[in-house]
Amino acid sequence: MFITASLIFAVYACTSAAVVHYPPNASATNNLTFALTGTGAPGIYTSSDTPNEEYGMYNWCNMPHVRPREYKSLGREYTLEYVEVIQRHHKRTPYASNTFFKESVSWSCDGEGPMYGVRTQRGRGSEITQVQWQASTNPVNPWTSAVGPGFVGSSCQFPQITREGLEGAITHGQDLRQVYAFRLGLSSRFDPTKVQIRVTNNVITSQVASGLIRGLFPFTTNAAALIQPSTFDSLEPAYSCPKASSLKADYTTGANGQAWQEHLELAKPVYAQLDRVSGVELGDGAGWHVSFDHYYDNMSAKQCHGKSLPCNVNVTSKCVSQDLANTVYRLGNWEYSYLYRDAPNSASYAALRYGAWVLELKGHLQAKVNGSSQMKYIAHDGSIALLLGFLQVADMDWPGMGSEIVFELYSKDNQSHYYIRVLWGGQPMKTSTPMGVLDMVPLDTLVAYVDEMIGTGSDLYTGCNAP
Description:
The chain has helices at 32-37, 143-146, 163-184, 203-216, 242-250, 258-266, 268-278, 293-304, 322-342, 346-370, 384-391, 443-454, 457-464; strands at 11-14, 17-20, 78-87, 115-116, 131-132, 195-198, 377-381, 404-412, 417-424, 427-428, 441-442. It is of the alpha+beta class and 467 residues long. The strands form 3 sheets. Strands 3, 6, 7, 8, 9, 10 and 11 form a 7-stranded mixed beta sheet that branches. The longest helix has 25 residues, at 346-370. Residues 1-17 form the signal peptide.
Protein backbone atom coordinates (compact mmCIF):
# COMPACT_ATOMS: atom_id res chain seq x y z
CA MET A 1 0.00 0.00 0.00
CA PHE A 2 1.43 3.40 -0.99
CA ILE A 3 0.70 6.45 1.15
CA THR A 4 2.02 9.87 0.18
CA ALA A 5 3.94 11.72 2.84
CA SER A 6 1.54 14.67 2.78
CA LEU A 7 -1.58 12.58 3.31
CA ILE A 8 -3.32 12.87 6.66
CA PHE A 9 -4.80 9.50 7.50
CA ALA A 10 -6.14 7.43 10.34
CA VAL A 11 -5.47 3.73 10.87
CA TYR A 12 -7.72 1.39 12.80
CA ALA A 13 -6.31 -2.11 13.31
CA CYS A 14 -8.34 -5.21 14.06
CA THR A 15 -6.55 -8.57 14.00
CA SER A 16 -5.29 -8.92 10.41
CA ALA A 17 -7.27 -5.93 9.07
CA ALA A 18 -5.79 -2.43 8.98
CA VAL A 19 -8.10 0.33 7.77
CA VAL A 20 -6.53 3.43 6.25
CA HIS A 21 -8.76 6.49 5.90
CA TYR A 22 -8.18 8.46 2.72
CA PRO A 23 -9.96 11.84 3.07
CA PRO A 24 -12.42 12.92 0.36
CA ASN A 25 -11.98 15.91 -1.91
CA ALA A 26 -12.63 19.32 -0.41
CA SER A 27 -15.81 20.66 -2.01
CA ALA A 28 -18.89 22.75 -1.37
CA THR A 29 -20.57 19.63 0.01
CA ASN A 30 -18.23 19.19 2.99
CA ASN A 31 -17.70 22.92 3.54
CA LEU A 32 -19.76 23.73 6.63
CA THR A 33 -19.68 27.48 6.00
CA PHE A 34 -21.19 26.98 2.56
CA ALA A 35 -23.75 24.51 3.92
CA LEU A 36 -24.91 27.12 6.44
CA THR A 37 -24.64 30.34 4.43
CA GLY A 38 -24.44 29.33 0.78
CA THR A 39 -27.23 29.57 -1.74
CA GLY A 40 -29.21 27.12 -3.83
CA ALA A 41 -29.96 23.45 -3.53
CA PRO A 42 -27.08 20.96 -3.99
CA GLY A 43 -28.87 19.38 -6.94
CA ILE A 44 -32.39 18.71 -8.23
CA TYR A 45 -35.11 18.25 -5.60
CA THR A 46 -38.30 19.12 -7.44
CA SER A 47 -38.37 16.71 -10.38
CA SER A 48 -37.42 13.16 -11.31
CA ASP A 49 -36.48 14.30 -14.79
CA THR A 50 -32.91 15.30 -15.59
CA PRO A 51 -32.27 16.75 -19.07
CA ASN A 52 -30.14 14.42 -21.21
CA GLU A 53 -27.39 17.01 -21.54
CA GLU A 54 -27.18 17.24 -17.73
CA TYR A 55 -27.65 13.55 -16.93
CA GLY A 56 -25.17 12.51 -14.29
CA MET A 57 -25.77 15.50 -12.05
CA TYR A 58 -27.14 14.96 -8.55
CA ASN A 59 -30.91 14.50 -8.58
CA TRP A 60 -32.25 13.53 -5.16
CA CYS A 61 -35.61 12.49 -6.65
CA ASN A 62 -34.12 10.13 -9.24
CA MET A 63 -30.37 9.59 -9.20
CA PRO A 64 -28.47 8.84 -12.41
CA HIS A 65 -27.93 5.17 -13.16
CA VAL A 66 -26.61 2.92 -15.92
CA ARG A 67 -28.53 3.42 -19.14
CA PRO A 68 -27.72 2.95 -22.86
CA ARG A 69 -27.23 6.63 -23.74
CA GLU A 70 -24.23 7.14 -21.46
CA TYR A 71 -22.90 3.59 -21.12
CA LYS A 72 -19.36 3.08 -22.40
CA SER A 73 -18.69 -0.33 -23.92
CA LEU A 74 -15.23 -1.85 -23.82
CA GLY A 75 -13.22 -3.36 -26.65
CA ARG A 76 -13.81 -6.88 -27.90
CA GLU A 77 -10.77 -8.15 -26.03
CA TYR A 78 -12.83 -7.92 -22.82
CA THR A 79 -15.72 -10.22 -21.94
CA LEU A 80 -18.33 -9.19 -19.39
CA GLU A 81 -18.67 -12.21 -17.08
CA TYR A 82 -20.77 -11.00 -14.16
CA VAL A 83 -22.67 -7.96 -12.87
CA GLU A 84 -23.76 -7.13 -9.33
CA VAL A 85 -26.00 -4.11 -8.76
CA ILE A 86 -26.85 -2.57 -5.42
CA GLN A 87 -29.35 0.26 -5.42
CA ARG A 88 -31.41 2.40 -3.11
CA HIS A 89 -35.20 2.43 -3.33
CA HIS A 90 -37.01 4.90 -5.59
CA LYS A 91 -39.37 7.72 -4.59
CA ARG A 92 -41.56 7.16 -1.55
CA THR A 93 -43.60 8.89 1.07
CA PRO A 94 -41.66 10.11 4.12
CA TYR A 95 -41.28 7.81 7.09
CA ALA A 96 -43.96 8.24 9.75
CA SER A 97 -41.25 9.32 12.20
CA ASN A 98 -40.41 12.18 9.82
CA THR A 99 -43.91 13.66 9.61
CA PHE A 100 -45.21 16.54 11.71
CA PHE A 101 -47.95 15.98 14.30
CA LYS A 102 -50.35 17.50 11.76
CA GLU A 103 -49.36 18.19 8.17
CA SER A 104 -50.53 21.17 6.15
CA VAL A 105 -50.75 19.25 2.86
CA SER A 106 -52.61 16.10 1.86
CA TRP A 107 -51.13 12.84 0.59
CA SER A 108 -53.33 10.18 -0.98
CA CYS A 109 -52.36 6.66 -2.03
CA ASP A 110 -55.80 5.47 -3.10
CA GLY A 111 -55.37 2.30 -5.15
CA GLU A 112 -51.59 2.43 -4.77
CA GLY A 113 -50.99 0.47 -1.58
CA PRO A 114 -48.38 -2.27 -1.11
CA MET A 115 -49.32 -5.86 -1.95
CA TYR A 116 -49.25 -8.69 0.61
CA GLY A 117 -50.08 -12.38 0.62
CA VAL A 118 -48.66 -15.89 0.60
CA ARG A 119 -48.33 -18.23 -2.39
CA THR A 120 -47.46 -21.93 -2.58
CA GLN A 121 -45.90 -23.77 -5.52
CA ARG A 122 -48.79 -26.19 -5.92
CA GLY A 123 -52.32 -26.81 -4.76
CA ARG A 124 -55.06 -24.29 -4.09
CA GLY A 125 -52.56 -21.85 -2.60
CA SER A 126 -50.77 -21.49 -5.94
CA GLU A 127 -53.54 -19.19 -7.22
CA ILE A 128 -54.26 -16.60 -4.58
CA THR A 129 -55.98 -13.23 -4.45
CA GLN A 130 -53.54 -10.37 -4.03
CA VAL A 131 -54.24 -8.14 -1.04
CA GLN A 132 -53.47 -4.45 -1.28
CA TRP A 133 -53.09 -2.38 1.88
CA GLN A 134 -54.91 0.93 2.20
CA ALA A 135 -54.23 2.85 5.40
CA SER A 136 -57.19 3.92 7.47
CA THR A 137 -57.98 5.45 10.86
CA ASN A 138 -61.02 5.35 13.12
CA PRO A 139 -61.74 8.17 15.56
CA VAL A 140 -63.22 5.68 18.04
CA ASN A 141 -59.65 4.48 18.68
CA PRO A 142 -58.44 6.91 21.40
CA TRP A 143 -54.82 6.62 20.31
CA THR A 144 -55.63 8.04 16.89
CA SER A 145 -55.52 11.61 18.14
CA ALA A 146 -52.71 10.91 20.62
CA VAL A 147 -50.14 10.18 17.91
CA GLY A 148 -51.39 12.94 15.62
CA PRO A 149 -53.19 12.75 12.30
CA GLY A 150 -50.00 13.46 10.35
CA PHE A 151 -51.26 13.68 6.77
CA VAL A 152 -54.95 13.98 7.60
CA GLY A 153 -57.11 11.16 6.24
CA SER A 154 -54.24 9.69 4.20
CA SER A 155 -54.58 6.23 2.66
CA CYS A 156 -50.76 5.86 2.53
CA GLN A 157 -48.46 3.73 4.56
CA PHE A 158 -45.53 5.82 5.80
CA PRO A 159 -43.27 4.88 4.20
CA GLN A 160 -44.37 3.30 0.94
CA ILE A 161 -43.15 3.53 -2.63
CA THR A 162 -45.42 5.89 -4.55
CA ARG A 163 -46.78 5.52 -8.06
CA GLU A 164 -43.98 7.73 -9.37
CA GLY A 165 -41.43 5.70 -7.42
CA LEU A 166 -42.74 2.43 -8.83
CA GLU A 167 -42.63 3.81 -12.36
CA GLY A 168 -39.07 4.98 -11.72
CA ALA A 169 -38.13 1.45 -10.62
CA ILE A 170 -39.66 -0.02 -13.79
CA THR A 171 -37.69 2.44 -15.94
CA HIS A 172 -34.55 1.62 -13.97
CA GLY A 173 -35.06 -2.08 -14.71
CA GLN A 174 -35.68 -1.37 -18.39
CA ASP A 175 -32.46 0.65 -18.62
CA LEU A 176 -30.46 -2.13 -16.96
CA ARG A 177 -32.02 -4.64 -19.34
CA GLN A 178 -31.06 -2.60 -22.39
CA VAL A 179 -27.46 -2.43 -21.21
CA TYR A 180 -26.87 -5.91 -19.80
CA ALA A 181 -29.38 -8.42 -21.25
CA PHE A 182 -27.56 -9.09 -24.52
CA ARG A 183 -24.11 -8.69 -22.97
CA LEU A 184 -24.83 -11.38 -20.38
CA GLY A 185 -27.26 -13.49 -22.37
CA LEU A 186 -30.22 -12.83 -20.05
CA SER A 187 -33.66 -13.85 -21.28
CA SER A 188 -36.85 -11.84 -20.88
CA ARG A 189 -37.91 -14.16 -18.06
CA PHE A 190 -36.40 -14.34 -14.60
CA ASP A 191 -34.09 -17.37 -14.34
CA PRO A 192 -32.99 -18.05 -10.73
CA THR A 193 -30.08 -20.20 -11.95
CA LYS A 194 -28.51 -17.13 -13.56
CA VAL A 195 -30.02 -14.19 -11.69
CA GLN A 196 -30.68 -13.39 -8.06
CA ILE A 197 -32.72 -10.55 -6.59
CA ARG A 198 -32.22 -9.70 -2.95
CA VAL A 199 -34.19 -7.43 -0.63
CA THR A 200 -33.99 -6.40 3.02
CA ASN A 201 -36.61 -6.80 5.73
CA ASN A 202 -37.78 -3.25 5.02
CA VAL A 203 -40.88 -3.82 2.87
CA ILE A 204 -40.18 -0.83 0.61
CA THR A 205 -37.26 -2.75 -0.89
CA SER A 206 -39.67 -5.46 -2.07
CA GLN A 207 -41.98 -2.78 -3.44
CA VAL A 208 -39.11 -1.46 -5.55
CA ALA A 209 -38.07 -4.97 -6.58
CA SER A 210 -41.54 -5.56 -8.03
CA GLY A 211 -41.00 -2.67 -10.43
CA LEU A 212 -37.33 -3.36 -11.15
CA ILE A 213 -38.02 -7.01 -12.04
CA ARG A 214 -40.90 -5.96 -14.29
CA GLY A 215 -38.56 -3.73 -16.28
CA LEU A 216 -35.60 -6.12 -16.24
CA PHE A 217 -37.57 -9.28 -17.06
CA PRO A 218 -40.78 -8.09 -18.76
CA PHE A 219 -42.34 -11.54 -19.21
CA THR A 220 -42.02 -12.49 -15.53
CA THR A 221 -45.08 -12.34 -13.29
CA ASN A 222 -43.64 -14.11 -10.23
CA ALA A 223 -40.08 -14.14 -8.92
CA ALA A 224 -38.45 -15.23 -5.69
CA ALA A 225 -36.40 -12.62 -3.85
CA LEU A 226 -33.72 -13.65 -1.38
CA ILE A 227 -33.91 -12.21 2.13
CA GLN A 228 -31.69 -12.83 5.16
CA PRO A 229 -33.06 -13.00 8.74
CA SER A 230 -33.66 -9.61 10.28
CA THR A 231 -31.23 -10.32 13.12
CA PHE A 232 -28.14 -10.52 10.90
CA ASP A 233 -29.08 -9.25 7.45
CA SER A 234 -25.85 -7.98 5.87
CA LEU A 235 -27.59 -5.91 3.19
CA GLU A 236 -29.59 -3.60 5.45
CA PRO A 237 -27.30 -4.08 7.54
CA ALA A 238 -28.84 -5.48 10.72
CA TYR A 239 -26.12 -7.63 12.28
CA SER A 240 -24.83 -6.68 15.71
CA CYS A 241 -21.58 -4.71 15.67
CA PRO A 242 -21.04 -2.84 18.96
CA LYS A 243 -17.60 -1.59 17.91
CA ALA A 244 -19.03 0.10 14.82
CA SER A 245 -21.69 1.78 16.93
CA SER A 246 -19.10 3.03 19.41
CA LEU A 247 -16.87 4.39 16.63
CA LYS A 248 -19.73 6.39 15.13
CA ALA A 249 -20.83 7.63 18.55
CA ASP A 250 -17.30 8.78 19.28
CA TYR A 251 -17.08 11.03 16.21
CA THR A 252 -20.61 12.42 16.61
CA THR A 253 -21.57 12.76 20.27
CA GLY A 254 -18.33 11.58 21.87
CA ALA A 255 -14.84 12.87 22.55
CA ASN A 256 -13.97 13.22 18.86
CA GLY A 257 -17.30 14.69 17.80
CA GLN A 258 -16.32 18.37 17.91
CA ALA A 259 -17.07 18.94 14.22
CA TRP A 260 -20.49 17.29 14.51
CA GLN A 261 -21.41 19.15 17.66
CA GLU A 262 -20.22 22.44 16.17
CA HIS A 263 -22.45 22.06 13.13
CA LEU A 264 -25.49 21.45 15.36
CA GLU A 265 -24.65 24.52 17.44
CA LEU A 266 -24.20 26.74 14.38
CA ALA A 267 -27.43 25.36 12.88
CA LYS A 268 -29.63 26.35 15.83
CA PRO A 269 -31.08 29.37 13.95
CA VAL A 270 -32.03 27.03 11.09
CA TYR A 271 -33.75 24.66 13.51
CA ALA A 272 -35.58 27.58 15.13
CA GLN A 273 -37.11 28.60 11.79
CA LEU A 274 -38.14 25.03 11.02
CA ASP A 275 -39.59 24.41 14.48
CA ARG A 276 -41.82 27.50 14.19
CA VAL A 277 -43.47 25.83 11.21
CA SER A 278 -43.53 22.21 12.35
CA GLY A 279 -44.39 22.76 15.99
CA VAL A 280 -41.58 20.43 17.05
CA GLU A 281 -40.21 21.35 20.48
CA LEU A 282 -36.50 22.10 20.83
CA GLY A 283 -36.05 19.42 23.49
CA ASP A 284 -38.01 16.73 21.64
CA GLY A 285 -37.02 13.13 22.21
CA ALA A 286 -37.70 11.93 18.68
CA GLY A 287 -34.39 12.93 17.11
CA TRP A 288 -35.45 16.07 15.21
CA HIS A 289 -32.43 18.02 16.47
CA VAL A 290 -29.64 15.44 16.47
CA SER A 291 -29.31 15.69 12.67
CA PHE A 292 -31.29 17.11 9.75
CA ASP A 293 -32.52 13.67 8.69
CA HIS A 294 -36.16 14.21 9.76
CA TYR A 295 -36.61 17.64 8.21
CA TYR A 296 -34.68 16.65 5.07
CA ASP A 297 -36.85 13.59 4.45
CA ASN A 298 -40.08 15.43 5.21
CA MET A 299 -39.47 18.26 2.75
CA SER A 300 -37.62 16.42 -0.01
CA ALA A 301 -40.34 13.75 -0.25
CA LYS A 302 -42.93 16.49 -0.69
CA GLN A 303 -40.97 18.42 -3.28
CA CYS A 304 -40.10 15.32 -5.30
CA HIS A 305 -43.84 14.67 -5.63
CA GLY A 306 -44.76 18.22 -6.60
CA LYS A 307 -46.20 19.12 -3.21
CA SER A 308 -45.71 22.45 -1.51
CA LEU A 309 -43.28 23.01 1.33
CA PRO A 310 -44.94 22.83 4.77
CA CYS A 311 -46.75 25.65 6.54
CA ASN A 312 -47.78 26.02 10.16
CA VAL A 313 -51.31 24.58 10.49
CA ASN A 314 -52.36 27.38 12.89
CA VAL A 315 -50.63 30.32 11.21
CA THR A 316 -50.87 29.40 7.54
CA SER A 317 -48.77 32.37 6.43
CA LYS A 318 -45.78 30.92 8.31
CA CYS A 319 -44.17 28.50 5.83
CA VAL A 320 -40.82 26.96 5.01
CA SER A 321 -39.27 29.00 2.21
CA GLN A 322 -37.35 27.44 -0.65
CA ASP A 323 -34.17 29.09 0.63
CA LEU A 324 -34.67 27.47 4.03
CA ALA A 325 -35.35 24.08 2.44
CA ASN A 326 -32.19 24.45 0.32
CA THR A 327 -30.20 25.12 3.50
CA VAL A 328 -31.56 21.90 4.99
CA TYR A 329 -30.56 20.01 1.84
CA ARG A 330 -27.03 21.44 1.95
CA LEU A 331 -26.70 20.59 5.64
CA GLY A 332 -28.01 17.07 5.06
CA ASN A 333 -25.38 16.48 2.42
CA TRP A 334 -22.70 17.90 4.73
CA GLU A 335 -23.82 15.46 7.39
CA TYR A 336 -23.56 12.46 5.11
CA SER A 337 -20.12 13.50 3.89
CA TYR A 338 -18.96 13.87 7.49
CA LEU A 339 -20.53 10.64 8.75
CA TYR A 340 -19.31 8.40 5.93
CA ARG A 341 -16.18 10.09 4.57
CA ASP A 342 -14.77 13.12 6.41
CA ALA A 343 -14.58 11.78 9.96
CA PRO A 344 -11.19 10.02 10.32
CA ASN A 345 -12.80 6.85 11.69
CA SER A 346 -15.59 6.79 9.09
CA ALA A 347 -13.74 4.23 6.96
CA SER A 348 -13.29 1.97 9.99
CA TYR A 349 -16.98 2.38 10.78
CA ALA A 350 -17.99 1.45 7.21
CA ALA A 351 -15.62 -1.54 7.16
CA LEU A 352 -17.19 -2.97 10.31
CA ARG A 353 -20.79 -1.93 9.69
CA TYR A 354 -20.89 -3.12 6.04
CA GLY A 355 -18.07 -5.64 6.01
CA ALA A 356 -20.33 -8.70 5.95
CA TRP A 357 -21.96 -7.59 2.70
CA VAL A 358 -18.60 -6.74 1.13
CA LEU A 359 -17.29 -10.20 2.01
CA GLU A 360 -20.33 -11.69 0.26
CA LEU A 361 -19.56 -9.57 -2.82
CA LYS A 362 -15.95 -10.79 -2.76
CA GLY A 363 -17.22 -14.38 -2.55
CA HIS A 364 -19.51 -13.87 -5.54
CA LEU A 365 -16.67 -12.51 -7.67
CA GLN A 366 -14.28 -15.28 -6.70
CA ALA A 367 -16.91 -17.96 -7.28
CA LYS A 368 -17.42 -16.65 -10.80
CA VAL A 369 -13.68 -16.70 -11.48
CA ASN A 370 -13.14 -20.24 -10.18
CA GLY A 371 -16.17 -21.56 -12.05
CA SER A 372 -18.22 -22.59 -9.01
CA SER A 373 -21.02 -20.14 -9.81
CA GLN A 374 -23.18 -19.86 -12.93
CA MET A 375 -24.64 -16.56 -11.81
CA LYS A 376 -24.61 -13.75 -14.35
CA TYR A 377 -26.39 -10.99 -12.48
CA ILE A 378 -27.36 -10.13 -8.90
CA ALA A 379 -29.46 -7.10 -7.95
CA HIS A 380 -30.08 -5.69 -4.47
CA ASP A 381 -31.79 -2.84 -2.69
CA GLY A 382 -29.36 -1.81 0.02
CA SER A 383 -27.30 0.67 2.02
CA ILE A 384 -25.42 2.79 -0.50
CA ALA A 385 -23.85 5.31 1.91
CA LEU A 386 -21.96 2.64 3.83
CA LEU A 387 -20.64 1.07 0.64
CA LEU A 388 -19.51 4.48 -0.64
CA GLY A 389 -17.77 4.99 2.69
CA PHE A 390 -16.10 1.59 2.42
CA LEU A 391 -14.85 2.26 -1.11
CA GLN A 392 -13.89 5.80 0.02
CA VAL A 393 -15.54 7.64 -2.85
CA ALA A 394 -13.77 10.92 -3.65
CA ASP A 395 -16.90 13.09 -3.36
CA MET A 396 -19.64 12.05 -0.97
CA ASP A 397 -23.26 13.18 -1.15
CA TRP A 398 -26.38 11.82 0.50
CA PRO A 399 -27.37 9.00 -1.91
CA GLY A 400 -30.71 9.95 -3.40
CA MET A 401 -33.67 7.96 -4.66
CA GLY A 402 -32.66 5.09 -6.97
CA SER A 403 -28.93 5.51 -6.28
CA GLU A 404 -26.98 2.64 -7.81
CA ILE A 405 -23.50 1.09 -7.60
CA VAL A 406 -22.64 -1.50 -10.25
CA PHE A 407 -19.78 -4.01 -10.06
CA GLU A 408 -18.81 -5.35 -13.51
CA LEU A 409 -16.44 -8.33 -13.72
CA TYR A 410 -14.54 -8.65 -17.01
CA SER A 411 -12.16 -11.31 -18.30
CA LYS A 412 -9.38 -10.95 -20.85
CA ASP A 413 -7.01 -13.29 -22.69
CA ASN A 414 -9.26 -16.34 -22.47
CA GLN A 415 -10.09 -15.79 -18.81
CA SER A 416 -6.47 -15.57 -17.72
CA HIS A 417 -6.93 -12.02 -16.38
CA TYR A 418 -9.88 -10.47 -14.55
CA TYR A 419 -10.77 -6.82 -14.03
CA ILE A 420 -13.38 -4.84 -12.12
CA ARG A 421 -15.21 -1.72 -13.21
CA VAL A 422 -17.35 -0.04 -10.56
CA LEU A 423 -19.98 2.40 -11.81
CA TRP A 424 -21.47 5.10 -9.57
CA GLY A 425 -24.18 7.18 -11.19
CA GLY A 426 -23.51 5.30 -14.42
CA GLN A 427 -19.81 6.26 -14.63
CA PRO A 428 -16.57 4.78 -13.20
CA MET A 429 -16.32 5.63 -9.51
CA LYS A 430 -13.62 8.05 -8.41
CA THR A 431 -12.10 7.13 -5.05
CA SER A 432 -9.54 8.73 -2.76
CA THR A 433 -7.73 5.41 -2.34
CA PRO A 434 -4.55 4.38 -4.20
CA MET A 435 -6.89 2.49 -6.58
CA GLY A 436 -8.02 5.87 -7.93
CA VAL A 437 -10.80 5.56 -10.49
CA LEU A 438 -12.35 2.09 -10.35
CA ASP A 439 -12.14 1.59 -14.09
CA MET A 440 -10.75 -1.82 -15.10
CA VAL A 441 -8.88 -2.36 -11.86
CA PRO A 442 -7.30 -5.83 -11.62
CA LEU A 443 -9.60 -8.02 -9.55
CA ASP A 444 -6.69 -8.96 -7.27
CA THR A 445 -6.23 -5.27 -6.43
CA LEU A 446 -9.82 -4.87 -5.26
CA VAL A 447 -9.66 -8.15 -3.33
CA ALA A 448 -6.47 -6.99 -1.62
CA TYR A 449 -8.20 -3.74 -0.62
CA VAL A 450 -11.11 -5.71 0.86
CA ASP A 451 -8.71 -7.96 2.76
CA GLU A 452 -6.83 -4.96 4.13
CA MET A 453 -10.03 -3.26 5.27
CA ILE A 454 -11.86 -6.28 6.69
CA GLY A 455 -9.67 -9.36 6.88
CA THR A 456 -11.57 -12.62 7.13
CA GLY A 457 -15.10 -13.19 8.33
CA SER A 458 -13.66 -14.26 11.66
CA ASP A 459 -11.65 -11.04 11.82
CA LEU A 460 -14.78 -9.02 11.14
CA TYR A 461 -16.79 -10.80 13.83
CA THR A 462 -13.98 -10.35 16.35
CA GLY A 463 -13.56 -6.70 15.38
CA CYS A 464 -17.26 -5.97 15.80
CA ASN A 465 -17.20 -7.36 19.31
CA ALA A 466 -13.88 -5.87 20.37
CA PRO A 467 -13.93 -3.64 23.49
